[in-house]
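Deliverable D4.2, example record:
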Amino acid sequence: MLVDYYDVFLLEHVTDDYQLAARVVGAVMGDSNLVVGDMYLAFGVRQLIDEGKLDYRGELGSLRDYEIRLK
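Output generated by the structure prediction step:
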């Protein structure tokens, strides 16, 4: 699946400590040559949470409303 392709980039930027999801998405966009929008990467973050690969705290609304870390 195409979404899975971006999972690698997202997971490379997530740490064991909580950090804003917006910061992770911004880092992926800034550190790579990916031509993909932030909303697409936000969808990928949510998928990783749903798959149990990431922990989160906060409200799953805007990227600025929650923090993520590796599970």
